[in-house]
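User:
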Amino acid sequence: MLSLVERLAFALLTLASAAAALRAADRIRRVIRRGRGPVSLAHLGRRLARAGVQAGAFLPTWRARLGPSLLHAFVGWAFIFYLLVNLGDVLQALLPGFVFLGPGVVGQPYRLLADVLSVLALVGMAALLLRRFVLRAPAFRFNPRTTLHPRVQGGGIRRDSAIVGGFILVHVGARFLGDSVALALAGPDPWRPFASLTSRLWLPLPPAALTVLAHVFFWGALGSILLFVPYFLHSKHLHLFLAPLNFLLRPERRSLGQLTAINFDDESITQYGAARLEELEWKLVQDAYACIMCNRCQDACPAHVTGKALSPAALEINKRYFVNQHGAALAAGQPSPQGLLEFAIGPEEVWACTTCGACVDICPVGNEPMRDLLDLRRNLVLMESSFPDQLQTAYKGMERLGNPWNVSPDSRLEWAEGLAVPTVAQNPAFEILYWVGCAPATDPRARQTARALVRVLSAAGVNFAVLGQQERCTGDAARRSGNEFLFSQLATQNVATLNAALGDPTTTDGAATTSTAAPKRRIVTTCPHCLHTLQNEYGDFGGHYQVVHHTSLIAELQAAGKLKTDLARAANLTFHDPCYLGRHNNVLEAPRAALRGAGAAVTELPRHGRQSFCCGAGGAQMWKEEEPGEQRVSANRFAEAAASGADTLAVACPFCLIMLSDAATAAKSTMPVRDVAELVAEALAPQSREAGG
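Assistant: Predicted structure:
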C-alpha cells in the first residue's frame, strides 16, 4: 500500500509519462501517414484473428533460430502478460486490502502464471543479452560494404539493445523480488513457487525492513515503466505494438510479390517510385518502426549470403534511425533532408536484389523490404533513367520484339518443330491454353522443357493450344527491374490477346460471349514468373484468368489416371523450389507429387519449401551481371544440391534450369539439371510415350 506522498508522486509521473508517450505516438502516426496510399480496414474481423494468432504465438519466429526464438518467446509472453500484472499491482498499491482477481480459483492460476513467466523472462533476457554482448553472435554483423546510418555505425543498435534489455531485467526483476518480499511477510504461497523460494533470502530481515524493500521494489518495477515509456517509443521495443499493427493493417495481396499498377494517364502523378522516405507506401514507412533489428531477413537474403553489400535488415534499420532523427520535421510535413539512396541504401545494393521474397517471408514482424527496393528501382528507371547498362538490351527486346532475348516473333514456334502443337487459330475449341513464355520459346536448353510438356499433354489427351506468334513477354523482368511503363505496355497488349483467345470455347472465332455453360478455360505455363504475373498482376489491366503451373497440371493428370508411368525408370532426385512458385505463390506439393507420380524418390535439400534458396535469376538478374560478392547465387545453390547425394537436380522454372545448369558447368559437375516435365515425359510408359509423339 503506497503512502499519500507516493500516490501523488505516482500520479504526477504517470501523467507526465503519458503526455510524453502520446506526443511521441502522434508524431509516429503523422510520419507514417506521410507515406503513399490509403489504409484499408476491409475484412477487419479476419485480420484481427490473423494478427492475434501471428503476434500472440510469435509464429513467424519459429522457422529459424529455434533457441533464440524460444528465449524471445519467454520474454515476449511475459511482457504481454505483464500488461495485466502491472495493472493489478497498481490497483493493489492504491486500494487498501485489494487483492487483484481475488484469492480463489481465478487469482491463484493468475499468480502462478505471473510467477513462472517472471522467471522465464529473466532467464530469456539474460541469455539474449549474453548472446549479443558476450558471445557476439555473427547474426548481428553486417558486410563492411553495407550502407549503415552514422548512428548505427556509432553503436546505436548495441546501445538501444542494452537499454531495452536492462529495463526488462530491472522491471521484471524488481516486480519478482517485490513479490518475494511480500511472501516473506505473509508466508509462502504454493501458487508462487519461485517467489516463495526466493522469499527465504529475506527471512532474516525485520518486518520494517521488508516493508521498505517492498516499496523500493514497487518503484523499481512500476517506476521504471514510467521512466522508460518516453524512450520506449524511440526504441526497437516499439515492435511490441507495431508488429500486431503491421499484421492487422498489412494490405491484402494475392501473393507477397504482387505490385500495384501505376496509372500513367493520371497527370496528377509527378513521382514514380520512391526517392525519399515519404514517397514510399505508408506501410513501408511503418516497417521502419516495426523492425526488431534481428537480421533474420539478412540471413535469408541470397545477395547477403553470397557476400554482396545488400542487407534488407540494414535498410529498415537505417530508415528507423532516420525517422528518429528527423521525425519532428517529417511529422510537420517537411520534405526529407536526404534521399533514400543517401542514407538508407546504395545503388549497388538496390540492384543486387533478386526479388525472391525471402526477406518478406521470414520477417517476424511483417516487414516488406523487397517492396522498398522495387519502389527505388521504379524511381531510378522512370525518373532518373539510371539502371545497369545490360538491362537496356532486354528492354529493347521486350519493347520491339516482345521478348528480352531479342529474338524475332517469327521464330516463336520453332521450339515445336516436329510436334503436333496447334495454335489458337487452328484449335479454337481448346480447353487449356499453354502460355509458353520467352525462355522455353527461345533458349535452347529451356526449349526441351516445352517439348517435354507437349509430349505429356498429348499423352494425357489434353485439348490444348498455344498463341504462337501472338504471345509476348509478360513483362515480369521489366516490372521487377522498375520499368513499370514497359510492363504496362506489355500487360495491356497481352490482356487484349488473352481476352480474345479465352472466349467461350463453343465459338469458332475465339470471341467472348455471354454464355456461362462452358467451363472457364485455364492457362498453363512452365514459368513461375509468367504464372505470377498472369495470375496476380494482370487483374489491374482487365485480365482475370485461371492459371496453373505445369507441375500442378501434371500432378492433376496423374491423380486422374491419365498418365501411365514406367516405374523402372525411377531415379533418386532432389528438388529445387523456385522462389516465384513456392514462396510467392505457395505451390509446394505439386512438383513433388508429379515427381513421385513418375516413380522418383525425392531427397529434400536443407533449404526447401518456403525457405528455398534463390537460383539468382529473379528481379531481372537474368539480364545483368551480379553485383560483386564472394560467390554467385547460383553457385551457392548448386553446391547445396550437389552435396545432397541425389543423382539429379529437378527444377520447375526455365530460369532456374538455365542458371543452375550454368552453375553445374562452372563447377564441372556431372549432376544433370532437369525440369519436372522432362523427367515425367521420360518416365511415361511406352504406350503413353507413343501417344505423346
